[in-house]
Amino acid sequence: MSDAAEWHVGEVIDEIRGKEIHCRDGLVGQVSDVLVDPVSGRPLYLVWREAVVVTREVSIPIDYVERIEGQQIVLRVGREAVERLPHFWTAEAGSATRPCHEEGY
Length: 105
Fold this sequence. Notes:
With about 100 residues, the protein is mainly beta. Helices cover about 10% and strands about 45% of the residues.
């Protein structure tokens, strides 16, 4: 399962959840969910959820995936590119409530 363009929902969602996401300069976190195209059934984004006091959710485009090695998903971009992606703050894990409108986003 190395080419993200060939992933299909039934084959990957349960297998991908929980895998570590690594970028060129280190660990990002773990996949908490996979967002799919409802028509084609192809995955579009990996969701990275980071909980502190509130939860930040970031949808990482599948195009960022370079390869999968065991329990690791390796991205072709650095952490700075992931940090620049739009993100959502939630009070409870599992439901995106409002997009972040911080400067630079």
